[in-house]
Amino acid sequence: MNQRKHGHRYNDDFKKMLVDLYHSGSSVKDLSSEYGVSEVTIYKWIKDFTPVEGVDGKEVTPKEVDAIQKEYLRLKQELEILKKAMAIFARK
């Protein structure tokens, strides 16, 4: 029986290595059988770690874009809180 580990966490270096191997010409099927990672997981890593051209020709990954968007929303919320606090203190 071929048993697979469920819930196994892989570090980003391992994920990037598999994505690099994919971009070097290895098929997802071969990588999956060699490293014991499902094809669906590898395709997700390819999506997450394949850079796209951003502003000023800099490359960013979709994962980095998501992190930037989350940080932007957090900062926007903090700004709204500060604006409300300023309005309260201005009245006093």
Automatic annotation (TrEMBL):
This is Putative transposase. SUPFAM superfamilies: Homeodomain-like. Transmembrane segments: none annotated. The lineage of its organism: Bacteria, Bacillati, Bacillota, Bacilli, Bacillales. Gene3D superfamilies: Homeodomain-like. One of its GO terms (molecular function) is DNA binding. Pfam families: HTH_Tnp_1. GO terms for biological process: DNA transposition. InterPro entries: Homeodomain-like_sf (IPR009057), Transposase_8 (IPR002514).
